[in-house]
Amino acid sequence: MSYEFSFPYIWGATPDLFQGLWMTLLVSLVSIAISVVLGTVCACLRLFKVPVLSQIATAYVHFMRSTPLLVQLYFIFYGLASLGLGLGGFWSGVLALSLWGGAYNTENVRGGLAAVPKGLQEAALSLGLRPALYLRLVALPIGLRVCIPAMLNTSVSVLKNSSYLQAIGVAELTFVAMNRVAMDFRTLEMFLAIGLIYLTIVLLLSAAVRRLEAVLQAPFRTA
Amino acid sequence: MERPLIEISALNKEFRGGIQALRDVDLTVASGEVVVVLGPSGSGKSTLIRCINGLETTTGGSIRVDGQQVNGISQRRWRKVRLNVGMVFQNYALFPHLNVLGNITLAPRRAGIMRRAEAEDEARRLLDMVGLADKETAPVASLSGGQQQRVAICRALAMQPKVLLFDEPTSALDPEMVGEVLAVMKRLAQEGITMICVTHEMGFARSAADRVIFMDQGEIVEMASPDNFFTAPKAERSRRFLELISRHDA
Ligand SMILES: Nc1ncnc2c1ncn2[C@@H]1O[C@H](COP(=O)(O)OP(=O)(O)OP(=O)(O)O)[C@@H](O)[C@H]1O
Ligand SMILES: [Mg+2]
């Protein structure tokens, strides 16, 4: 049997695909934002070796990086629901992706902070700056800039991994494609289409981050 | 009599691993005095001045800064003490993401000492004094080492400290830039700023110091006026050190 590739079929599916794309973007961007904040906080806890919290951050990173995302996702979606703490598909997905990305961003930001010359902390302290101000005004502006490329990598992974959310019924791109395939068996068309869409948003995200990097690199503001 | 700005007595510092970096150091510095600390590598010069602003903890003896007992105090209380103690580092340690003005105004503004406009006026006045009036918006990476160190001096001065600590401020500089930094330091010395300078610049020690301290193996071996120290050193170790230096300079 020969398979006839049908562009019109893809065309007909665009409204569905757009709905899926919207959900993918929403889930991904919210998760990326949370994961950046979470990673930054955990990295700072570890930098200042805050008792207890820094150990918790270390264990969290280790746990997230050593277990499959799909297991984490099921744990949050089904596991919490069985405890009566069900969050629903969307927020379970956001939580799982945020925690997952947050673990990697912890390592990314840690790397960035490690690149901040040690002498700057002594300089800041000797000027009478509080450690928290040193962190906010010196270490993070320098360290976060350094780790932008690494955070971009993690963000791209979060975006791609949002496709796992189809497993818990979140109507994102992959879910939409699977649904159409289940009805119409147009596998090539649908998976090619969403593949190209994922590719496009990854490229756009990368370009946006490169712009951001250039903007942050250039001016040496007064604080 | 006015109370000395810095009173150090029987100060000891043992690093983890058992290295005794300071042994029973006694030192009193009066307001307006310029003290130059000399000594071979590893003699404890950096450790001594880092103890004065709490960048190192001490393991014995006592330090008073402006009358306040500081050894063993919390970081929170150190912050208050450090407002009165400026430090200039060998490698400048400027904040690379800020321009010249940002480097100088960051601490005065954030420590709540000055408003932005006031801090910037003061920064401009200081930059003018060190001959960098035209560099206020320059990124620090675009400056030469000598210029960066002069900015670092301005940054420390902007906090209006009671004493300035210098840890080999010219050691990382190319020879042709040493002079411009020493000129600024001499000027500060003349203006009556209290300074403790670790340096290998004998010319500066001779011309600017009120007192020279020679350290070796964690001890203050000799303390004298520059005239006496350079022309008639008392201790055998001082003599050997000066011989070594003069052979280098020749
Ligand atoms: N953080 C540290 N941990 C362990 N030992 C240290 C530390 N810092 C300094 N020391 C040791 O303490 C001694 C005094 O060091 P210090 O840096 O004060 O000497 P210095 O006179 O400033 O020397 P230099 O001219 O090389 O700068 C040295 O033996 C040094 O190895
Ligand atoms: Mg030293």
Automatic annotation (TrEMBL), chain A:
Would you indicate the residue range of the signal peptide?
A: none
GO terms classed as biological process = amino acid transport
* Domain (ABC transmembrane type-1): residue spans on this chain: 21-209
Which molecular function terms from Gene Ontology are attached? transmembrane transporter activity
Q: How does it sit in the membrane?
A: Multi-pass membrane protein
SUPFAM superfamilies cross-referenced by the UniProt entry: MetI-like
Its subcellular locations are:
Cell inner membrane; Cell membrane
Instruction: Extract one GO cellular component term from the record.
Output: ATP-binding cassette (ABC) transporter complex
What top-level branch of life does the organism fall under?
A: Bacteria
What are the alphabetically sorted keywords of the record?
Answer: Amino-acid transport, Cell membrane, Membrane, Transmembrane, Transmembrane helix, Transport
Which InterPro entries has this protein been placed in? Answer: AA_ABC_transptr_permease_3TM, ArtM/GltK/GlnP/TcyL/YhdX-like, MetI-like, MetI-like_sf
Give the transmembrane region(s).
20-48, 69-91, 188-209
- Show the Pfam families listed in the entry: BPD_transp_1 (PF00528)
The record's function comment reads: Part of the binding-protein-dependent transport system for glutamine; probably responsible for the translocation of the substrate across the membrane.
Report the sequence similarity comment from the record: Belongs to the binding-protein-dependent transport system permease family. HisMQ subfamily.
- Please identify the protein, giving its name as recorded: Glutamine transport system permease protein GlnP
Taxonomic source organism: Roseovarius halotolerans
UniProtKB/TrEMBL annotation, chain B:
GO molecular function term, any single one: ATP binding
SUPFAM superfamilies from the entry? P-loop containing nucleoside triphosphate hydrolases
As for membrane topology, the entry says: Peripheral membrane protein
Q: Where is the ABC transporter domain?
A: 6-242
Q: Which domain of life is it from?
A: Bacteria
Give the range the annotation lists for the signal sequence. Answer: none
Task: Indicate yes or no for the key word ATP-binding.
Answer: yes
GO CC list: plasma membrane
Name the CDD domains for this protein.
Answer: ABC_HisP_GlnQ
Alphabetical keyword list: Amino-acid transport, ATP-binding, Cell membrane, Membrane, Nucleotide-binding, Transport
Q: Where in the cell is it found?
A: Cell membrane
Family statement: Belongs to the ABC transporter superfamily.
Record-given protein name:
Glutamine transport ATP-binding protein GlnQ
Native source species = Roseovarius halotolerans
